[in-house]
Structures are given as C-alpha cells and as structure tokens.
Amino acid sequence: MNIGIGGAGGKLASLASNGECTIVNVSELELSKIEANSKLLAVTHSARGQLRGSGKNPAIGKEAFVSIGEELKNLIKGNIVFSSTGGGTGNGIVSELLDKISQKEEPVILEERTLFAFILPCLNRESSEYVENTIEFLGSPVSSAIDSGNTGNIALFSNKLKFEGRIAEANYNKMIVDSFNSFLSIPVKGEMYKLLDGHIDFEDFDLFRSKPYFNHFTQFSWDTEKPFESQLTSNFNGLLLPPERAIEVMFLIELPDESLTPKFYDVLDYFANDDIAPVYGVVHNPELSKPQITVSMLYSRKPRELVEDFKSVSDKYTRNRIKKSLEQHVVLQNHKLDKMNEARRMVEESGSNSGDVLGFLKRIGKL
User: Is the domain of 234 the same as that of 157?
Assistant: First the structure.
C-alpha cells in the first residue's frame, strides 16, 4: 500500500495507486484536494496549519505527528511512503517517524521495513527554506534511520529535471510514478512471462527492497551488440540523484526473441568485474520489439555527504544574497549621505546655522 505524507507525497501516492492509498496532512483543505480511499488528519494547534497546511515549517508537522504517530507507525509496516523533504508537513511528520524507527530496541523484521521515496528540491530554483529543511532532514532523521538498519530502500528523487526541462508538475509527478512502477513491476514480470534464465520472485524482490540502502533504478532499451557499461551510464535515471558505486544489484531482462538469451551474460560479467553477484531474471516478452532491461542498484553513500552537497550550494547562494544586500545597503547609505550634504549646502546658502540641517531634513520628510 502507498502512503503519502504532505501535499507532494499525497499527490504521488494517489497517482501511483489510482487513489487506493492513505494520505496524511495537517490541513483538511489539502486532504480534500487529493483522491484517496483513506485520509488521516494530523492535528496541530496552529489555526493556520489546520486550514492551509504547514507551509515551510517542519515544526508544525512534528507537533502534529503526536496525534497520529501510533497509527502511522503501524500503517507503514511493509509499505511505501512518499514525501517531499523541503516542505513542512512531509518533512516534519516523516522526521518524527524516522526517529521512532531509529530508536527501536529490537530490529525491524524484513517484512515490516518501509520503502521510502523522497522528493528533494532543485537547489538553485526553489526557495532557501526548502533547501535548509532538506539539509536538516538528510543530516539527522535519514542518517539515523539508515544507521539503525531499520528502514528499507530509500529512493531520492530530485526536482532538478523538472525545472531544467520546464515540465508541468502534473506531468513530472507522472514521470516519477511511472519510473517507480517500472522498479516495482520486476517481480510481476518475472511471474507473468516465460522464464529464460535466472529467477526473481516476490520473495526475492521483498528481500532486496527491505535493505537499508539508497536505490537507483532505471529502465532502457538494451542493444545487445554494444558494451553494457556505456549504455548503463548514459541511461541513469535523471529523476533520481546519480548513484555511487553499487553494493547490490537486481536486474530483469525482457527479450522479444528467445535466441538472444545468452547475451545476458554480458550484463552479468559487467557486474561480476565489480565483485557484485546480482539477483537477476531473463524473460521472454513477445510484446516488445527490442530487448529491455530494468536495473536497480543499491548504494550506501552517507547522508552527511549528500548534506555537504546541499550545503555547498546553499552557502554559495547565501553568500551571494549577503553580497547583494551589502551592496544595496552601501548604495542606500551613500544616498542618505548625499541628502545630508545637499541639505547642509542649501541651509548654508540661505544663511542659516548648520544646526538647522536636522530640522530641515525633518521638514522635507527625509528623516
């Protein structure tokens, strides 16, 4: 089951499951805008929050978590959670949720681990508040949850492509959902089509997605006559943050022609050269005109390193804002100084005392 927390998370969860999901928000108004068969209102003492949402203030989301915490902790077991990292509701509620997961004395069993899909802001296009909220979110709750080993895969989507490609939000959300579903469909296709080699069933898939690593998945048409490495790197998923060196891999190859089956060894060899033994399946899909491969790579880049990436860009823009502010401040001060000098000159020309300058400025409304 999909669970969407906050405005962005709710939209994605609903889209991914045609409304067969649970959405969570602090605002009744926001809940009413999204199709879902189950809706949870997180209660906050902020009148503005209850009406309009948390805005960019995670503190409102954290406060509201208390009202739904126990129910939500049970609801997410073995399921998928969508949320943005920059806003108030998603960031605040999920931060508390991850903290509770991290603090569990007993390890979370594999079947109950949660797969998280987070949407990160575009660094140089979205507000500094979104970026600062994301820095805090990655640096503490996400880092602690991964270190605890109690979470499942975490997919880090980014809004970068949305802004660079000038893509409408609704279309971009669909792109994210379609990409995510291509990963989730691996075991479905493994059972649907004739198996040619390897094997991926739902048990294999659930074990893979329960591991506490970042997940980068991609799907593309595979040219069996060209080197696999160049095809993989040129087809990394632009919706997700780029992956680091993979620790574990799962791939599913769909072939329109069974005679191409031995070509899968090229892919196997590529990962074997990096000391990785993938979980894999090769199936016959007669509906395709070209071979297709879906690859999922788990990597363990530490959240603190991601935080440094965000901080470096955030610091750059902060310095620029300070610089511009100082430049404007100097101009304004010079402007005030010119007014003072001009007033002094006019008073002296009129034969008045220099002590009348202040009074003159007050009369003309400049002080």
Answer: no
